[in-house]
Design goal:
Layout lengths: L2 E6 L5 H13 L3 E6 L1 H11 L6 H8 L4 E2 L18 E7 L1 H8 L6 H11 L3 E6 L6 H12 L3 E4 L11 H15 L18
Parallel strand pairs: 1-2, 1-4, 2-3, 4-5, 5-6
The structure holds flavin mononucleotide (FMN).
């Protein structure tokens, strides 16, 4: 069973976090989850909910995960000695990206990203921001050099998506490709009717 840490920060794109929280355990992963207060604000705005705590969000979704408080540096995931296969930050705020690039572990998600890079483990950072300034780009280049995989939340259209869910599934599927989880979340090029 793969152990995966998912950190959710306050960028737009709550639907991506929700999809990952539902699909990681459904694909046999042990999920460790941490949501920042600003992420919960965005979840409420974008999913039109009124959660007062991350526990309420998780129980509403009905997915299985171990929740960690964003300020709990004593959580097992805070240490490199706790074995985690992959770390995903989705959606990642530009504030998170800046702090991670600066080596600043001011909360558990930033600490986990730092641990992932120092232990040379898989770290996927999904951002949604647009356009990007030079600071964003340079921070992302630095994180890439430190081993992170930076992914824009930018679904493809070559599989002829018919719904928003299919667009979201494509992004989740691309993350699963990187962290090596078998899935059937989108049609690959070569499996589509129009591929040559
Ligand atoms: C509706 C809404 C959308 C936001 N979208 C983004 C975004 O796409 N990218 C980003 O970097 N910040 C975005 N923010 C701002 C972040 O929430 C803010 O920078 C926050 O401090 C991030 O904190 P965190 O990284 O601790 O979660 C948004 C805020 C709101 C209220």
């Amino acid at each position: 069973m793969k152990r995966v840490f998912l950190g959710v920060t306050g960028a737009s794109g709550a639907v991506y976090a929700k999809d990952l929280i539902e699909k990681l355990p459904a694909h046999g992963c042990e999920l460790h989850l941490c949501i920042t207060p600003d992420a919960l604000t965005n979840i409420n705005l974008e999913l039109q909910k009124n959660y007062t705590a991350q526990e309420e969000f998780l129980s509403d979704i009905g997915a299985k995960a171990t929740l960690h408080d964003y300020k709990n540096f004593a959580a097992p995931v805070s240490s490199g000695s706790f074995m985690v296969d992959s770390y995903i930050i989705a959606p990642a705020s530009m504030g998170f990206i800046g702090r991670a690039a600066g080596g600043i572990s001011s909360n558990l998600i930033e600490r986990c990203a730092d641990v992932a890079m120092k232990e040379r483990r898989k770290l996927v950072i999904l951002f949604r921001e647009m356009p990007l300034n030079l600071i964003h780009l340079e921070n992302m280049a630095l994180l890439t050099r430190a081993g992170a995989v930076i992914m824009p939340a930018a679904p493809a259209f070559y599989h002829n998506p018919a719904s928003i869910n299919e667009l979201i599934s494509f992004v989740t599927g691309k993350i699963f490709d990187i962290i090596e989880i078998e899935h059937n979340l989108y049609k690959r090029w070569g499996e589509t009717p129009q591929s040559v």
